[in-house]
Automatic annotation (TrEMBL):
Residues 62-180 form the MTTase N-terminal domain. One of its GO terms (molecular function) is metal ion binding. Residues 1-23 are annotated as: Disordered. It is found in: Cytoplasm. One of its GO terms (cellular component) is cytosol. Keywords: 4Fe-4S, Cytoplasm, Iron, Iron-sulfur, Metal-binding, S-adenosyl-L-methionine, Transferase, tRNA processing. It comes from Fictibacillus enclensis. Pfam families: Radical_SAM, TRAM, UPF0004. This is tRNA-2-methylthio-N(6)-dimethylallyladenosine synthase. It is an enzyme of class 2 (transferase). Belongs to the methylthiotransferase family. MiaB subfamily.
Amino acid sequence: MNQPGSTPAKDKEKTTKDYASYFQTTYQPPSLKDAKKRGKEQINIVKDFAVDEDLKKIGAGKKFYIRTYGCQMNEHDTEVMAGILSDMSYEATTDMKEADLILLNTCAIRENAENKVFGELGHLKPMKVENPDLLIGVCGCMSQEESVVNKLLKTYDQVDMIFGTHNIHRLPQIVKEAYFSKERVVEVWSKEGDIVENLPRVRKGNIQGWVNIMYGCDKFCTYCIVPYTRGKERSRRPEDIIEEVRHLARNGYQEVTLLGQNVNAYGKDFEDIEYGLGDLMDEIRKIDIPRVRFTTSHPRDFDDHLIEVLAKGGNLVEHIHLPVQHGNSDILKLMARKYTREHFLELAGKIKNAIPNASFTTDIIVGFPNETEEQFQDTLSLVKEVEFDAAYSFIYSPREGTPAAKMKDNVPHEVKKDRLQRLNAVLNEISLRKNQAYLDTVVEVLVEGESKKNPEVLSGHTASNKVVNFRGPKHLIGKIVKVHITDAKTWTLSGDLADEKAGVV
Ligand code: 5AD
Ligand code: SF4
């Protein structure tokens, strides 16, 4: 296990170059090798988070801007960091140019996600030159990677702070250090992670809320960096989660999404109780909140009890995101997904039987090492058989430190691109067909806001997670309304308010 992070000395004489050598000798970067050793470290539940008195005013008169990349877990972490910064008297801004503190909350899942961040840091350099008091921080999954930290230290001297996914609660101290030392602060704990319960939070809007139910992932799919960047699976206690959902319900939220990298492994780490995601959902469905979602599931952990509970319906929505990743059992084995094509098809059939109106979405990777045309065809045939409502499809991207990165990345890029296009054509054809089945039906839509393309149009989701656009008065935002579907495209439905006078269900 690494030492729990460290910060460089505050020697003002040192140049950036000196610091690079300093880090090499005394700073231990996050280690993927260490992250892989699971199980030894005690998980602590910390309930006494508070911003130190002397740091509560440190941001007075200053503004912060956080750019979030990647998944909902990062969105969630951004809400927490915004909460902490607000407790330090910082004010949020949506204009990067007027910010005194900029954080990039990064994603490491694919190379192009990382390239976007390095590109953005390039754009920030002139801002830093113009305003040396501007503080720039890199946090999130990329900062858990030793190669990234080394690259930032070596070539991105505009970065003042680098901190990891386990260090978010240390943000006040990190910012203080960065201000007063005027030198770079690096704090990346390569540990399995604690659970910090009472962190402040500025949620985006008051319609939909994320509720983290567990952290980390122990699945170690061979292509994936997440188990290394997010630590060991650790579940929050049910009573803390239920209290948070109740709090959102009391505050008028219409929807919660229970979050975890591997959400249906929830509870497996409890030593004192036998309690899983099915049990938790069975309790949450009794809370008076119209919609409850959860993401992301792993097929291997999708047990019968969970299906049974989801089939009870009510506020448990009929949308299931179930990443399959591939349709060929040999590739699934190389990916260490721990299920076969047949097992996935059986599971999908079981869920469809129990919840006949369920909509299914998935994640798929093409061009994994050694993937043959025939094996790729298995992905196409699986997609056709399951008929996913929608899917995120990706070209395989080798991630340093993962087992797959040691395999020869032997599918030529042109072939990968071609397979992705062919896969998307099949997926899109099915999505369109599935959406067309909604024509001339009336659906319930949670109105989330104005459509991004046209402020005259309102936009929201059905319980089955279809995007619906329609014209209506703005006061419907945050309400669940009935919409008559008149048009169906590949990714969106549109229609008219079913009862313009009543409007609200
Ligand atoms: N290359 C491409 N796609 C990846 N994913 C995870 N790791 C990689 C990788 N190395 C995809 C998986 C996962 C989704 C969040 O990102 O499909 O489900
Ligand atoms: Fe990554 Fe998901 Fe596999 Fe965990 S289960 S290793 S997060 S793809």
